[in-house]
Each structure stands twice: as C-alpha cells, then as structure tokens.
Specification:
The structure is a single chain. The chain has about 375 residues and is mainly α. Helix content is about 60%, strand content about 0%. The chain contains 21 helices and no strands. Helix 5 runs antiparallel to helix 6 and helix 10 packs parallel to helix 12. The protein is elongated.
C-alpha cells in the first residue's frame, strides 16, 4: 500500500511537470503561432514589435491613436512627444515588413499621430516627426498595393494646408514647405497608375493643393478613359476657375457619360452661364464639325454674350470649313481684336483658301504721305545734268 502511494505521488509530480512545460512552450511559441495571432514576446516593447512588423502591435496602436467618430483630437504634450516620435520611427522601420493591406494601416496610424501636433499647444519637437512620416508616405505612394497608395494620397491631400498648433519660426516654416514639396513628385507619378482608383485619388490630391501651378498636372485627366477619373477631375477643380476654364467645362458637355455632362452643366451654372449659353457652348465644342458650323449663325449677332470671343475660338478650328464660316461671321464685327485675328489668319493659316478669305475681309491699306528726305540724303543734293 505504501509503495502504491509513492508511485502515485511520483506520477502526479511528473504530470504537473509536463503540464507546466507544455504551458511554457505554448506561451513561448515553440509549438508555432497561436491561433489568435503571433504573440509579442514579453521582453519586446511595442515599438520593437512595430519595427519587427508585428500585426498585433499595429492593430493595438491603430485602436489607440485613431479617434472614434466625432471624438476630438487631443493635443500632444511635451512628455508624450518623444514617445510619439519614437513610434513614428518604429512604423517607418517596420513598414516593408507588413503585408499590403497592413501597410495602409501604417499610413493611417502614422498620420493620426501627426494630427496631434496640429492642436495647440504643439510641443517644440513636432519637427522631428517630419522625416519618418515623409518616408512612410513616399514609400506608400510607390507601393504595389493600390489601397496603400490611395491611403497615402488621401492623407497627403489634407497635409497640403497642414500647420502645427504653435507659432513657428522662419526656419521651421521653410522646413515644412520643403517637406510638403518633397511629396509632390510622388503624387504626380501616381497619375500614371494603371489602377483608375489610384489615378482618381491622385487627381483629388492635386486638386486640394492650393497653388495653381503645382495643382495643374491633374487637369488633363478631364480626358481620362475612365469616367470616374473624369468626374473626379470635375469635382476637384470645380471651384478653381483659373485652372478649370469655361472652355474646358464646355468640352465635357459632349462627354459620353450623362452624369459627367450633368456635373459640367452644374459647374457652368455656378460660373454664371445660362442654360441657353451652355447649350450653344456645347455645340461650339462638339466633336462634329457640322454642329460647330451650325452654331455660328446662332451666336454672331447675340447681344447677351460676346460673340467675338466664341467666333475667334471657332476661327482656330482644325476643320477648314469651320474656319471659313467663322471668318465670314467675324467680318461683320469691326474691332482691333477681330482685325488682328483676321490678319494673323491671312498671313499664317495652313489653308490657302482660308488665307485668301481672311485677306479679303481686312480693310484696305492706305497709302501714307511721302516723308521728307533725311539730312545728308542725296535727295537734298541732286547732281547737275
């Protein structure tokens, strides 16, 4: 009986040892990744896990830094600044170690951290956040995953007008301007993406840029093969008359997609054009030469618009018959602007017929009075016969 008790005791001890060993191996990952995701080693802090590309750490960070809908963004304190900047550095170093969709999450988490520096009072070391965020956004715009590129473009669109929540000195202002400018080439490159959703996001991003010259590269996508890209271009530039002109809008009145025609019409009305003017303008920019010719009699004598501007537009048409009809209508409008245009056509139009027609509409050149001979001229000292 005593021997049986001793055997039972030893068996119990061995069983407890095996259970403890199995538990240790399970926690330490010796049996492979746990079903709930790879655990972060106890000795590894979150930044180290982010540098290693740990998805669990990224998920936890995202839940922490992305505010709930309607929640206010809290300003970063000086005590938090060092920690936040170290986390941005960790995200930058671990960026390429994440799968495609997770890299989009890195972009969102990094930008939400940066948002905190926009609130007053921002700590002085907000500038230390610029390099890692720049690297993350630049790498994202070149990423193979379209969702990552789109995430970066959406965030950059908001950063064009970003300022820290504190007064900044000129050197910081220069740093911030150069930082924003450094992202512009990457946005422009995204315009050539094969993915139409990326092109659309790039157009929207450039459309949000307040400097017309830098924003303009997105404008040609008004002619993009994808209708969503064309529509996005209309929306993004609708409030920028110096970039998106009335003539450009009128071309969209002949778009193959009715929703784009409606959008262009709405923008034109906000620019002050009536429905009748829009309809006439649509004919002027029609792809059919016969329709472009047909509009000339309808506009040449109008008093509610400036027919000369539109006739000059038609005088530059690629089709000879349209230019000839425009010359005939311009002949009834006597103004220096009309005369200059007719003289230009008479001199340099590619068609001999058009040159001759324009020349006939010009006023005759008057003979000028003979000027007296200049001092020293032979005319003042005629030779004797």
């Amino acid at each position: 009986m005593a021997k049986r008790r001793r055997v039972g005791f030893v068996a119990a001890v061995l069983a407890c040892t095996l259970i403890a060993t199995a538990a240790f191996c399970w926690k330490s990952g010796m049996f492979g990744a746990r079903r709930t995701g790879a655990a972060i080693p106890v000795a590894m802090d979150r930044d180290a896990a982010l540098r290693a590309g740990d998805i669990t750490a990224l998920t936890a960070l995202s839940e922490e830094v992305i505010p709930a809908l309607g929640a206010k963004i809290q300003p970063a304190t000086e005590q938090e600044c060092e920690t936040l900047n170290q986390t941005l550095q960790a995200l930058r170093k671990g960026f390429l170690k994440y799968e495609g969709p997770a890299r989009a999450s890195v972009v969102l988490a990094a930008c939400r951290i940066f948002d905190r520096y926009s609130k007053e009072p921002a700590p002085p070391k907000w500038v230390d956040a610029l390099p890692p965020l720049h690297d993350i956004l630049t790498a994202s715009m070149a990423d193979a995953d379209p969702n990552t590129r789109k995430a970066a473009l959406v965030e950059i669109a908001k950063l064009w007008v970003w300022t820290p929540g504190r007064s900044i000195i000129p050197v910081e202002e220069q740093m911030l301007a150069e930082w924003k400018g450094g992202m512009h080439p990457g946005v422009v490159r995204c315009l050539s993406s094969r993915d139409s959703t990326v092109r659309s996001a790039a157009v929207a991003c450039l459309g949000a840029l307040p400097i017309d010259e830098l924003s303009a590269p997105g404008l040609p996508y008004l002619e993009d093969p994808d209708r969503q890209v064309r529509k996005q271009t209309l929306v993004s530039y609708s409030n920028r008359p110096n970039v998106l002109t009335v003539d450009m809008l009128l071309t969209r009145m002949n778009d193959s997609d009715p929703t784009i025609q409606e959008a262009a019409s709405l923008v034109l009305k906000t620019r002050g054009l009536s429905q009748e003017q829009i309809s006439l303008g649509a004919l002027i920019f029609s792809p059919k030469p016969a329709q472009r010719v047909s509009v000339i009699p309808l506009i040449k004598d109008r008093s509610d618009l400036d027919p000369v501007v539109w006739l000059i537009q038609l005088s530059k048409d690629s089709v000879e018959s349209v230019r000839l009809a425009a010359i005939e209508a311009l002949a009834s409008h006597k103004s220096p602007l009309v005369e200059r245009r007719l003289a230009e056509m008479a001199r340099s139009d590619v068609s001999k017929v058009v040159r001759e027609a324009a020349g006939k509409c010009l006023p005759p050149v008057e003979n000028t009075a003979s000027l007296p001979p200049l001092p020293g001229s032979r005319a003042l000292n005629p030779k004797a016969n």
